Amino acid sequence: MTRLLNNPDNFPVESAEGFLLANKRHVRGLYGGAVRATKTPEGKVALVIGGGTGHYPAFAGWVGHGMADGVVMGNIFSSPSAAQAVSVAKAAERGGGVLIAFGNYAGDVLHFGDAAAQLSAQGIPARAVVTTDDIASAGPEEKEKRRGIAGWVPVFKATGAAAERGMNLDEVERVFHKANDRTRTLGVAFSGCTLPGDSEPLFTVPEGKMAIGLGVHGEPGIAEVDFGTADEVAKVLVERLLEERPEGADNRVIALLNGLGTAKYEEMFVTFRAIHRLLEEAGLEIVDGEVGEFATSLDMSGVSLTLHWPDDELVELWNDPVDTPTIRRGTVDAGDLRDDIHTLSQDPTRIAVTEEGSEESRALAAKMADTLDKVAAMLREKMSELGKLDSYAGDGDHGTGMQRGSENAASAARKLLNEGAGAGTLLAGAGEAWSATAGGTSGALWGVILGAAGQGVGDADVPSAEKVAEIVDEVTTTLQQVGAAEEGDKTMLDALLPFTRALKDYVGQGNLAESWNKAATVAAGAAQQTADLSPRIGRARPLAEKSVGHADPGAVSLAYVLATIGEDL
Amino acid sequence: MTRLLNNPDNFPVESAEGFLLANKRHVRGLYGGAVRATKTPEGKVALVIGGGTGHYPAFAGWVGHGMADGVVMGNIFSSPSAAQAVSVAKAAERGGGVLIAFGNYAGDVLHFGDAAAQLSAQGIPARAVVTTDDIASAGPEEKEKRRGIAGWVPVFKATGAAAERGMNLDEVERVFHKANDRTRTLGVAFSGCTLPGDSEPLFTVPEGKMAIGLGVHGEPGIAEVDFGTADEVAKVLVERLLEERPEGADNRVIALLNGLGTAKYEEMFVTFRAIHRLLEEAGLEIVDGEVGEFATSLDMSGVSLTLHWPDDELVELWNDPVDTPTIRRGTVDAGDLRDDIHTLSQDPTRIAVTEEGSEESRALAAKMADTLDKVAAMLREKMSELGKLDSYAGDGDHGTGMQRGSENAASAARKLLNEGAGAGTLLAGAGEAWSATAGGTSGALWGVILGAAGQGVGDADVPSAEKVAEIVDEVTTTLQQVGAAEEGDKTMLDALLPFTRALKDYVGQGNLAESWNKAATVAAGAAQQTADLSPRIGRARPLAEKSVGHADPGAVSLAYVLATIGEDL
């Protein structure tokens, strides 16, 4: 819902004023809307666009060199008046005539048509033209009745570029119609938007459903279907749009994925990935792709896909320079494209065995690789428990982080073992793999733990119980330095420090396995006691107050790992 | 919540792939993230930025000429690994060394610090530096502990421009620290974000409250206060930020209002309007203002304000050309600024009396002006009833539209009357004023009604009852043509046509007042009967199915107006 507002009655005017203040470089306000801040050449055709407010960047975000000369700004979802359009058109026109372009909505048709007639009567050649890209709003046999939605972008871009090139009014209008004829859009919505000052949305879509073809003001769509994955949503959009390939289109498309309000960039990128693949599978060449917010509907949840099928002229016009508040292109000459970077996710193998370990160290390494497998299996089992704990303390990814990290560590260890690694190299390599895969704070710390342990163990001897206790002590000291934390800060150290002290105490009294397991029990108890601690804030650590009363996930997972190691000793 | 996803585990990778596919002109993907698609000059310092995913445009949206050379992309809200950073840095570096810059988060500090150490050990000079702009995350005496948030934009912009200019690593690092020292951010949040695949948000803010200083992953803020108006939110942000004017700052600021996820552009503009005023009142010069989404937190609701206090060097670096997926500047030369457009909302007075009306027409005009006052008063009273009806049929603005339009019409009529207008000119002028203020479809149609009536009435005679019935008939025909509607389409015509027929019938049988009032009763009945009609869809008219069972607001308001006129005859 709209939360930032003053008196709802003043919302459209205050929003327009804020827009103008934030975009002084591009626009100047006047009665009815705004025109470019810069002077345009005499004789240039003026492209004036507009409609109701609530769709930003449509329409005010597109005023500037290479696109619109002026924008007429209405109230929320309500067309501006003819008087407003005349005011803006007169400020924008430079003797070449005016093309007033807008979506095909009743109020806009009436007012802008009236404005064009008034301007013509005053000796300013003016024409009103409508975009009709929304394939859901009328059948293919009634294309002229369709609404205009996000297809505004390629149509206004082409038209604005044509006018900027100095084409006359007839030519600019020809480009407008060609671009519109070659543009198709389909949207899906998951929930409606709420008007400023209202508490209820304009419409709702049942939970688990999505509406196909719903208009940007809640106009009825063509179907309500079950909500699928991002890939399935992409399929619906692409398939329906490809059913209506425009006459004269070749295999080139420009694809725009538009967020309607609350769809976020990351999920739109996930969806665009599938759209790109489907278009390629259909044999199409994707001349350009744009993912972002172009024609919104306040806080409506959903996306629309626009396919623009350019010919040579339209490709050129699309690539022409443009400089508006929200669309900019044709900037600095950034130089030649690189051809030395090819792949997204090929993990460079960074772990290598430079020298084989001793026979006994390799035997120890084999044991350790088995233990790492068990640790990974255990952490997969504990994944959701750790994730839940982390949802109190952080962002809930500790479970998945530990699971991914330990699995990659185990598999790196296996690889190194086959290459003849001793125990020290194996541990260090496993640590690097853990850190590289898990990311996050805990990934880094486990990388440090295993790396420091590997350094202590080395590739020659099998350490005695006392030596193991020493190594654990060194690891703990290193971790304290790297993590810059202290006991009581509610971190994994609150389990590790008691473990280290207990192991040192017990190791004189029995064998390693016995001492380790007793110390691991101490660690498990200490981990549970972290529930009583307050989180350490500072050094920008993302811990919430709500973690009080819940054990620290890092301490708990450490205790689990220590116990699993103990079983194997 | 995140709705568009496939397997949540794959979300970050799929999102990164989609980003790369949509931005081929700017970026090339590789293990760990992405680098510029274009070749950079030998010896150039490489700026590598990065952190967790979920904050787009931070960080991938800032790779390109004039800003970053590479981006390291982590999992959702989780730092990337040192191995990823090393991979990206190696692909980005050109012999001038690497500056790795990021927010001050524990995981990032560990991994990027490690990466810088690894690169240096391999002979590539590399330094890890952190931004610390979030004033809520630690006190002024512990500035170095603060988190980095949306202040990334001016800091990375300055640093990237410095590197693009060919400054060496020491100089680029100097600019980084200066820019960071002069940048302060404070955010407010109204609700938390939901991680992909989760059904519950990471955190919640109580209804009616807002959290000040909450971090971009839900880190605790400094206070929870009552939610105020946009102006009050602006005041909180500006006042707290001005308490921390950086050392050495003069009176220049660059202000960035950042949407955290679901705040919409229109409400951000409303807020920016107040911010701009407050900064001016504080005697500051606003060098530049930016309103948009820069550092988001998935679908978190809230905004943050960043104040960057540039010196001469930082102003220049801010204005240097840049070409990234989301920040572009320094494009085409758009020419000189206009100085002939000054005011936002000065309504050009379009109505004028060219010739005085006859005495009797002026007397009629005076009566009409009184009636228009009564119509306006009546419509103010009916405003919420009509708004409610329209919430079923459209977007709920019919009540406010009729109220605004009729009030402006009445005041224009009064003005024209004082200038000696006859009845025809008065009606036409009132129609223009109605249409100009109300906008929307009904505003246009009422403009047409009054204009056509004025033409029929003229400025000479007082029409007879029969002539009035004729004029009404002409008005109805004109309206039908303009509105392109027919009886039964569920529009105001469904009341106007029965009224017109009834008036014609009754007018032979009694005086005008009697006939008019009887016909008005017919219109009122017909208006109520529109409840049974289905809305006319097509010509992109925004009517929802839910209007069935509710009378058409346009027909109802017409009947009210007819009845009010009748009282005065």
UniProtKB/TrEMBL annotation, chains A, B:
<dbReference type="InterPro" id="IPR004006">
    <property type="entry name" value="DhaK_dom"/>
</dbReference>
<dbReference type="GO" id="GO:0005524">
    <property type="term" value="F:ATP binding"/>
</dbReference>
<dbReference type="GO" id="GO:0019563">
    <property type="term" value="P:glycerol catabolic process"/>
</dbReference>
<keyword id="KW-0547">Nucleotide-binding</keyword>
<dbReference type="GO" id="GO:0005829">
    <property type="term" value="C:cytosol"/>
</dbReference>
<keyword id="KW-0808">Transferase</keyword>
<dbReference type="Pfam" id="PF02733">
    <property type="entry name" value="Dak1"/>
</dbReference>
<keyword id="KW-0418">Kinase</keyword>
<dbReference type="Pfam" id="PF02734">
    <property type="entry name" value="Dak2"/>
</dbReference>
<feature type="domain" description="DhaK">
    <location>
        <begin position="7"/>
        <end position="327"/>
    </location>
</feature>
<dbReference type="InterPro" id="IPR004007">
    <property type="entry name" value="DhaL_dom"/>
</dbReference>
<feature type="domain" description="DhaL">
    <location>
        <begin position="366"/>
        <end position="567"/>
    </location>
</feature>
<dbReference type="InterPro" id="IPR036117">
    <property type="entry name" value="DhaL_dom_sf"/>
</dbReference>
<keyword id="KW-0067">ATP-binding</keyword>
<dbReference type="GO" id="GO:0004371">
    <property type="term" value="F:glycerone kinase activity"/>
</dbReference>
<dbReference type="InterPro" id="IPR050861">
    <property type="entry name" value="Dihydroxyacetone_Kinase"/>
</dbReference>
<protein>
    <submittedName>
        <fullName>Dihydroxyacetone kinase family protein</fullName>
    </submittedName>
</protein>
